[in-house]
Design a protein that fits this description.
The protein has 554 residues and is mainly α. The protein folds into 2 domains: 379 residues, no CATH class; 122 residues, 2-Layer Sandwich (Transcription Regulator spoIIAA). It has 24 helices and 7 strands. The longest helix is centred in the middle third of the chain and has 33 residues.
């Protein structure tokens, strides 16, 4: 059972230490009961990860062994060094398009170099404690991104799902790809199509009737057995890649030159950003399932180390994987040891069963990824956003369409910018400027004035009073300045009530300084009421201090 402090606390260690959660677990005490639970969970996750890792690598244009090396090395390091008790690292479907594009432009060696550099970037992001900011991605951006990736993954598997034969290289862009696949439709391989359908059917059937069984592994093993027994004329891992090795390669640095480093740097930045987003999102999912709190910056440092480690063994990009992490939690994994054991189990499977992998049909792995793509698309969330929010729908559709037809990072970037602009617009509308008026002291002429410039008469009839509510930031500064500028003939005294202003930025302070200067030129006294210490500091930076105005408590 999780400790109450772990459930309710804010994980203060996440801001003060980079100690892996594994250290926390060992300090608590690690006994046989926990080991048994972690071993069972690790074995369960390894059974899921084995076919999935090869499928993702193949879909990315990399050899299947690269996916296994990534699950083994990257998965072990993510769990051993990470800031989450339950995170499972490895190759992820979200990277398929990015990896394929990088290999297409720079070759596999270029991808390995980009992965190594991305690891260094992730470590730097973590050490600079920037992990908190990565989590500020609007929900519509995440939904649009994952839905777009799901479409691209499925499109990338159509060729193997139907066993199509293309005359040349399959285009990377979606529309040319679909056009080429349509033209190749007469080359459909019935055996491949049947194996794809069988794989999908077995996975979905077992998920419904025997959810505790390893559906992915059973489906792929059944398809491989049929290929072996019936000698089906379909492409397999052996026919396309020559099988997989039965041992890990020796670690080695990728081919390096300054020119190549500069060339792969944009891809490395994209891998780092996408990896950070995906891994922290996965850690948040695990937190929601367990009541724990992860250490975001520690997690990013671990992801960086895992990407460097995987690249040294010829692997591909590593990130936290939501589906495998959720599987680990549901299987009873309690500590990072479960993730470490999952990596060791994948290594054991590779050492023992490497020759059998040659019989795995690519159609079966395509079926696995088709199911992954279907599960990845958050269909309910997508529809809910379209129904309930016009502004969020714009962000969602912009991200979704740009991911599909342009580029992953362009989609995320535009989505974040649009989401931020919408958020600033909403926050600016929250800011109000009101006049505190005593109706008994207002004549008919006063009552006809705009509410924001109503005159508040004191005994001498010489005071304007404004009450500003909400955050004074650059998005609201212009509208606030416009309201304050409507003062008209200046009275002897102006009171600005900032009691309900939680914070202010320099843009708002500049706007207020302009109003203060104008009032002083008209021989009006300015009083600022109820400003908090942080707000006063910001105002002070623009010269609004006791030499110009009088500050009073509310």
């Amino acid at each position: 059972m999780n400790e109450p402090g772990a459930r309710l606390g804010s994980d203060t260690a996440s801001h003060g230490t980079f100690a892996p959660k594994l250290f926390t677990v060992l300090r608590e005490g690690y006994g046989p009961a926990r080991l048994r639970a972690d071993a069972l969970a690790g074995l369960t996750v390894a059974i899921v990860a084995l076919p999935l890792s090869m499928a993702i690598a193949i879909a990315s244009g990399a050899p299947p062994a690269a996916g296994l090396f990534t699950a083994i090395i990257g998965g072990f390091l993510v769990s051993a060094l990470g800031g989450s008790r339950h995170q499972i690292g490895g190759p992820a479907g979200a990277f398929i398009v990015l990896i394929a594009a990088t290999i297409d432009q720079h070759g596999f060696d270029g991808l390995v170099l980009a992965t190594l550099v991305a690891g260094a970037i992730l470590i730097a992001i973590g050490l600079l404690r920037l992990g908190t900011y990565i989590k500020y991605i609007p929900h519509p951006v995440l939904v649009g991104f994952t839905a777009g990736i799901a479409i691209i993954i499925f499109a990338s598997q159509i060729r193997d799902l139907f066993g199509l034969t293309l005359p040349g290289k399959e285009p990377a862009a979606l529309l040319p790809k679909l056009q080429a696949l349509w033209q190749a439709l007469p080359t459909v391989n019935p055996a491949a199509m049947a194996l794809s359908a069988l794989t999908i059917g077995v996975i979905l059937g077992l998920r419904r009737w025997r959810p505790g069984w390893p559906g992915l592994l059973i489906a792929v093993a059944l398809a491989a057995a049929l290929v072996f027994l019936l000698n089906l004329p379909v492409e397999t891992i052996g026919s396309r890649f020559g099988g997989i090795p039965n041992s890990l390669p020796a670690p080695h640095l990728p081919a390096f030159s300054l020119e190549k480093l500069v060339a792969v740097l944009p891809a490395a930045v994209s891998i780092a950003i996408l990896g950070g987003i995906e891994s922290l999102l996965s850690a948040v999912v695990a937190d929601g399932m367990t009541g724990r709190r992860h250490r975001s910056n520690t997690e990013l440092v671990a992801q960086g180390a895992a990407n460097i480690g995987a690249s040294l063994f010829g692997g591909i990009c590593v990130t936290g994987t939501i589906a495998r992490t959720a599987t680990n939690v549901r299987a009873g994994g309690q500590t990072p040891v479960a993730g470490m054991l999952h990596a060791l189990f994948v290594l054991l499977f590779m050492l023992v069963a490497a020759p059998l992998a040659s019989y795995i049909p690519l159609a079966a792995l395509a079926g696995v990824l088709a199911v992954v793509a279907w599960n990845m698309a958050e269909k309910a969330a997508f529809i809910a956003i379209l129904r309930h929010s016009r502004a969020d729908s714009v962000v969602l559709l912009a991200t979704f369409l740009l991911v599909i037809f342009e580029d992953l990072m362009v989609g995320i970037g535009v989505g974040v910018v649009l989401g931020s602009l919408i958020f600033m617009h909403r926050m600016a509308n929250v800011v109000t400027v009101e006049a505190g008026m005593d109706p008994a002291l207002v004549d008919d002429d006063d009552a006809s004035e705009p509410a924001e410039t109503e005159k508040v008469r004191n005994g001498n009839g010489d005071t304007f009073r404004y009450r500003i509510s909400g955050p004074l930031f650059f998005g609201a500064s212009m509208s606030v300045a416009t309201v304050l500028d409507r003062t008209g003939p200046f009275p002897a005294r102006i009171v600005l009530d900032l009691s309900d202003v939680p914070f202010a930025d320099s843009s708002a302070a500049v706007a207020l300084r302009a109003m203060v200067d104008k009032a002083i030129r008209h021989d009006a006294r300015v009083e600022i009421l109820g400003a908090t210490a942080p707000v006063r500091r910001v105002l002070g930076h623009e010269g609004i201090d006791e030499t110009l105005v009088r500050f009073r408590d509310a």
